[in-house]
User: Fold Helix-turn-helix domain-containing protein from Pedobacter ureilyticus.
Amino acid sequence: MENATKTTRTHLGRKISRIRELRGMKQDALAAELGISQQAVSKLEQSEEIEDSTLEKVAKVLGVTSEAIKEYSDEAVFNIISNTFHNTSSDNSTLIASSLNYQPTFNTIEKIVELYERLLASEREKIELLKGK
Assistant:
Protein backbone atom coordinates (compact mmCIF):
# COMPACT_ATOMS: atom_id res chain seq x y z
CA MET A 1 0.00 0.00 0.00
CA GLU A 2 2.90 2.33 0.76
CA ASN A 3 4.26 1.88 -2.79
CA ALA A 4 0.93 2.90 -4.27
CA THR A 5 1.11 6.17 -2.38
CA LYS A 6 4.64 6.86 -3.58
CA THR A 7 3.83 6.28 -7.25
CA THR A 8 0.90 8.69 -7.25
CA ARG A 9 2.99 11.57 -5.90
CA THR A 10 4.51 13.91 -8.41
CA HIS A 11 8.26 14.33 -8.19
CA LEU A 12 8.89 17.50 -10.18
CA GLY A 13 12.68 17.14 -10.04
CA ARG A 14 12.57 13.75 -11.75
CA LYS A 15 10.22 15.14 -14.38
CA ILE A 16 12.60 18.02 -15.07
CA SER A 17 15.49 15.55 -15.32
CA ARG A 18 13.57 13.36 -17.75
CA ILE A 19 12.50 16.27 -19.97
CA ARG A 20 16.05 17.65 -19.91
CA GLU A 21 17.41 14.27 -21.00
CA LEU A 22 14.81 13.94 -23.76
CA ARG A 23 15.83 17.38 -25.02
CA GLY A 24 19.45 16.19 -25.11
CA MET A 25 20.56 18.75 -22.56
CA LYS A 26 23.15 18.15 -19.87
CA GLN A 27 22.86 19.47 -16.33
CA ASP A 28 25.67 21.96 -16.87
CA ALA A 29 23.94 23.40 -19.95
CA LEU A 30 20.71 23.85 -18.00
CA ALA A 31 22.70 25.39 -15.14
CA ALA A 32 24.36 27.86 -17.49
CA GLU A 33 21.00 28.91 -18.94
CA LEU A 34 19.55 29.37 -15.46
CA GLY A 35 22.64 31.13 -14.11
CA ILE A 36 23.21 28.57 -11.36
CA SER A 37 25.75 25.82 -10.71
CA GLN A 38 25.51 22.27 -12.00
CA GLN A 39 25.28 21.13 -8.38
CA ALA A 40 22.23 23.37 -7.91
CA VAL A 41 20.57 21.73 -10.93
CA SER A 42 21.37 18.32 -9.47
CA LYS A 43 19.79 19.34 -6.17
CA LEU A 44 16.79 20.76 -8.05
CA GLU A 45 16.30 17.45 -9.89
CA GLN A 46 16.34 15.62 -6.56
CA SER A 47 13.61 17.86 -5.15
CA GLU A 48 10.08 16.49 -5.02
CA GLU A 49 8.54 19.96 -4.86
CA ILE A 50 9.79 23.11 -6.60
CA GLU A 51 8.66 26.71 -6.20
CA ASP A 52 6.47 27.97 -9.04
CA SER A 53 8.86 30.81 -9.91
CA THR A 54 11.78 28.39 -10.25
CA LEU A 55 9.63 25.94 -12.19
CA GLU A 56 8.67 28.71 -14.63
CA LYS A 57 12.35 29.55 -15.26
CA VAL A 58 13.27 25.90 -15.82
CA ALA A 59 10.28 25.36 -18.10
CA LYS A 60 11.24 28.37 -20.21
CA VAL A 61 14.80 27.07 -20.66
CA LEU A 62 13.52 23.58 -21.53
CA GLY A 63 11.07 25.05 -24.05
CA VAL A 64 7.94 23.77 -22.31
CA THR A 65 5.34 25.19 -19.96
CA SER A 66 5.37 24.63 -16.22
CA GLU A 67 2.08 22.76 -16.68
CA ALA A 68 3.78 20.42 -19.14
CA ILE A 69 6.38 19.62 -16.49
CA LYS A 70 3.70 19.07 -13.83
CA GLU A 71 1.66 16.81 -16.13
CA TYR A 72 4.61 15.00 -17.73
CA SER A 73 4.61 11.21 -17.73
CA ASP A 74 6.84 8.63 -19.42
CA GLU A 75 3.68 6.76 -20.40
CA ALA A 76 2.50 9.69 -22.52
CA VAL A 77 5.84 9.84 -24.33
CA PHE A 78 5.84 6.09 -24.94
CA ASN A 79 2.26 6.28 -26.22
CA ILE A 80 3.25 9.00 -28.68
CA ILE A 81 6.23 6.97 -29.86
CA SER A 82 4.24 3.75 -30.19
CA ASN A 83 1.44 5.52 -32.05
CA THR A 84 3.92 7.05 -34.49
CA PHE A 85 4.73 3.72 -36.12
CA HIS A 86 2.09 1.28 -37.25
CA ASN A 87 2.83 -2.34 -38.01
CA THR A 88 0.44 -3.45 -40.75
CA SER A 89 2.22 -6.76 -41.33
CA SER A 90 2.25 -9.88 -39.18
CA ASP A 91 6.04 -9.80 -39.14
CA ASN A 92 8.19 -6.85 -38.08
CA SER A 93 9.54 -6.06 -41.55
CA THR A 94 6.97 -3.31 -42.13
CA LEU A 95 7.65 -1.78 -38.73
CA ILE A 96 11.38 -1.72 -39.38
CA ALA A 97 10.92 -0.31 -42.87
CA SER A 98 8.51 2.38 -41.70
CA SER A 99 10.82 3.44 -38.87
CA LEU A 100 13.74 3.69 -41.29
CA ASN A 101 11.67 5.81 -43.67
CA TYR A 102 10.28 8.09 -41.00
CA GLN A 103 9.92 11.63 -42.29
CA PRO A 104 9.85 14.34 -39.62
CA THR A 105 7.32 17.14 -39.92
CA PHE A 106 10.04 19.77 -39.62
CA ASN A 107 12.98 20.64 -41.83
CA THR A 108 15.95 18.88 -40.24
CA ILE A 109 18.51 21.10 -41.98
CA GLU A 110 16.83 24.22 -40.58
CA LYS A 111 16.88 22.69 -37.09
CA ILE A 112 20.58 21.86 -37.41
CA VAL A 113 21.37 25.39 -38.59
CA GLU A 114 19.24 26.84 -35.77
CA LEU A 115 21.09 24.70 -33.22
CA TYR A 116 24.45 25.68 -34.71
CA GLU A 117 23.55 29.37 -34.56
CA ARG A 118 22.45 29.05 -30.92
CA LEU A 119 25.66 27.24 -30.01
CA LEU A 120 27.72 29.85 -31.85
CA ALA A 121 25.91 32.68 -30.04
CA SER A 122 26.48 30.92 -26.74
CA GLU A 123 30.20 30.57 -27.45
CA ARG A 124 30.39 34.26 -28.40
CA GLU A 125 28.74 35.19 -25.11
CA LYS A 126 31.27 33.07 -23.23
CA ILE A 127 34.15 34.78 -25.05
CA GLU A 128 32.72 38.22 -24.23
CA LEU A 129 32.36 37.23 -20.57
CA LEU A 130 35.94 36.00 -20.47
CA LYS A 131 37.20 39.21 -22.13
CA GLY A 132 35.33 41.26 -19.54
CA LYS A 133 37.15 39.62 -16.62
Observations:
- The chain is about 70% helix and 0% strand.
